[in-house]
Structures are given as C-alpha cells and as structure tokens.
Amino acid sequence: MDPELEAFLALLPSIDLTDPVTSRKQLAAIPRPVPDTSGMEVEDRTVPAGPPVPVRIYRPAQAQGAVVWLHGGAGVFGDLDTEHGQAVRIAGGSGAVVISVGYRLAPEHPFPAASDDAYAVLNWAFDNAAELGFDPGRIAVGGHSAGAGLATGVALRARDEQGPPIRFQLLNQPMLDDRQQTWSQLAFTDTPWMTRDKLAAAWRHCLGSAPATPYTAPARADDLSGLPAAYIATAEFDPLRDEAIEYALRLLRAGVPVELHQWAGTFHGSQALPAEVSQLQIAELGAALRRALAE
C-alpha cells in the first residue's frame, strides 16, 4: 500500500451497512474542508421527475460540456453535501458543468429508483443544455463507486432507448456486478473502507426483492457495442477492482475506446484523502473529462 495512504488508515470512519441510517448520520458529521468555488457558479435546482430529483450544478466560466455526476456511497448513503468537495474539484479540473445528482437511496428506495433518477436528470440536462450553459453534444455521465455503476447503467439505457447522445463515461472504481465472483471480490475480505461483505450488504439493500438487470448491475449486459468512450479508474486493494477491469476489456472487445488506469497502492475511496496519490487521482479524472469533451 502507498505509505502515505497507510498513515490514514487509523483515521478512516467505520461504516456499518447493516444500519444505513446510522451510517449516513456518522458520515454526514465528518468535518470536510470548504472547497474553493471561486471562478464557478454553484446552484441548487430540482429536476421535475417522478418524484423530483435534487441536483447541484457547478458551472465554471466558459464551460463547453457537462457531466451528470453520481456520488458514491454503496447506493445507501451520500448526498449533494457529502459530494460537494469532489464535485467542485471535478468541475475545476475539467472546465465542464457538473450536475451532481441527489438520487434516492436504498434500502428505503431500492433499484430502479436511483437509476430512474439518474436517467431523468440526463434527459433534463440534455433538454435544458442552452439554459445550463453547455453544448448538448458534449454531455458525459460519471461517478464514483455505486455512482459510477449507475452512470454505466445510464449509458446502457440511453443506448437502448435512443436517449440523449452521451459522449463519454467517467467511471471511478465502479460497482458493476452483484454476483461478486471475481478474484478481487473473493480475495479482498478485509481491505480498508470497503470489503466483500459490505458490498454484499449494499447489493441486498439496493436490489431489494427485484432481480438485477444490466441497468442496475451493468456487468450483466451481454452487448456492450455502441456505448460511449470510457475512462475507468481502479484501486489496487479494492474488491471492485477486477469487475471494472473486466468490463473495460469487454468494452474494448466491443469496439469502444477505453482508457484504463489501475492505481497501484490505493484502496477503495482513497482518492478522497489528502495524499499525493489521491490528488493525482482526482486531477486525472478532471483531465480525462476535459479531453473527452473538448474533442
């Protein structure tokens, strides 16, 4: 493990996915530095859908494109406030409008609630691109962990339903496969922050009594052709590592351009820490989005 990251292990908060409500309160109470939002407009809006979806829009000066951004949290915690710092950094690093989505959480709202919220925001953003200040031909979807899995499912759904033309997928440590049968899922039972058992609990909450579909567990999709180009980042000591790498390989075999970065010495969510490698991870997400939307 990266020595600088290892120094933070004792400070990581514990999360109990058997009690999501308590975990949400604990994580929301963690002090977070106030990000520098100078040079961008930040606005809270509500997307009319069924039910309405809260979003927070980050609009840098002279933005051309946009990304519908979906926060992490295993599908059971996280919100616009906990994602605020990372959304600011993505907007600043990419120069794109970031539309951060406050999608519904499990177990109160199992899938497809979160997926439906994300897809509704994508359609709203595309339809209102002129007002929001970006070119509708330069729209991306992205996210971290469960949010990256949702973004992947949104790209599949947009392809299948002839929805908005997504240009790019920005996927950081995506949660893609409820079956949990990859080598990293079977081996990483005691890794920092996220483990196989925690992910199993998350999938139980997210799926409820519904079967997994390619839109909720994208690794189940049979056909990956015709999808947008993707940047996929993985962490070395992460149960989700191998399903993301395998998905990247399947995209490549389907003729989809992919940039894959496996970050050595990192663990799930470590990009949120104030370590050098973490800063590099966030910076690269912004740079990849900037390149994709400028082409």
Automatic annotation (TrEMBL):
<dbReference type="InterPro" id="IPR013094">
    <property type="entry name" value="AB_hydrolase_3"/>
</dbReference>
<dbReference type="GO" id="GO:0016787">
    <property type="term" value="F:hydrolase activity"/>
</dbReference>
<protein>
    <submittedName>
        <fullName>Esterase</fullName>
    </submittedName>
</protein>
<keyword id="KW-0378">Hydrolase</keyword>
<feature type="domain" description="Alpha/beta hydrolase fold-3">
    <location>
        <begin position="67"/>
        <end position="270"/>
    </location>
</feature>
<dbReference type="Pfam" id="PF07859">
    <property type="entry name" value="Abhydrolase_3"/>
</dbReference>
<dbReference type="InterPro" id="IPR029058">
    <property type="entry name" value="AB_hydrolase_fold"/>
</dbReference>
<dbReference type="InterPro" id="IPR050300">
    <property type="entry name" value="GDXG_lipolytic_enzyme"/>
</dbReference>
